[in-house]
């Protein structure tokens, strides 16, 4: 089975969506094998989103990601990376409400920045992001 990293971003945690999101996760066949709540500082948020450092939205993104605690989880399931991306829906939560009304971002996101959840976009990012938050873990 595959592992992916899921994150409930500050707007999701502060908006009290944690339990609802976890319910969707479990009902969709994922196991939550690790979870931790943490507050990112500028340095860690910039490191996490380093691939976007030259984008125009980067400073806004870092401000958003450091505005409150995030809940990070390792999800396990067959095809976890792609299936979690499908479940969260498109980046722009406003569009998600129209095109993917049953997605998590449609449920709790606001726009293309405040979209309430994150999911690794490939197996490689999943490995990097899991190590980023949990250190090296065994591959069972
Ligand atoms: P994530 O990596 O968080 O799962 P994603 O892969 O759907 O989201 P990316 O393109 O990797 O989207 O962008 C990373 C994050 O940067 C987005 O989730 C969002 O919070 C923010 N972001 C992306 N595009 C914009 C934009 N045009 N304006 C403002 N913020 C944006």
UniProtKB/TrEMBL annotation:
Keywords: ATP-binding, Cytoplasm, Kinase, Magnesium, Metal-binding, Nucleotide metabolism, Nucleotide-binding, Signal, Transferase. It catalyses: a 2'-deoxyribonucleoside 5'-diphosphate + ATP = a 2'-deoxyribonucleoside 5'-triphosphate + ADP; a ribonucleoside 5'-diphosphate + ATP = a ribonucleoside 5'-triphosphate + ADP. The active site is at 118 (pros-phosphohistidine intermediate). ATP binds at residues 9, 57, 85, 91, 105, 115. It is an enzyme of class 2 (transferase). Belongs to the NDK family. Residues 1-140 form the Nucleoside diphosphate kinase-like domain. Transmembrane segments: none annotated. This is Nucleoside diphosphate kinase. Its EC number is 2.7.4.6.
């Amino acid at each position: 089975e595959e592992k992916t990293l899921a994150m409930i971003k500050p707007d999701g945690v502060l908006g009290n969506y944690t339990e609802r999101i976890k319910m969707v996760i479990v009902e969709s066949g994922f196991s939550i094998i690790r979870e931790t709540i943490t507050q990112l500082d500028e340095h860690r948020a910039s490191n996490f989103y380093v691939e976007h450092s030259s984008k125009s939205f980067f400073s806004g993104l870092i401000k958003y990601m450091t505005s409150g605690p995030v809940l990070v989880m390792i999800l396990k399931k067959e095809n976890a990376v792609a299936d979690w991306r499908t479940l969260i829906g498109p980046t722009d939560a406003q569009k998600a409400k129209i095109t993917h009304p049953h997605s998590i971002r449609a449920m709790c996101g606001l726009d293309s920045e405040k979209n309430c959840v994150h999911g690794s976009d490939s197996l490689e990012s999943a490995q990097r992001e899991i190590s980023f938050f949990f250190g090296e873990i065994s591959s069972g």
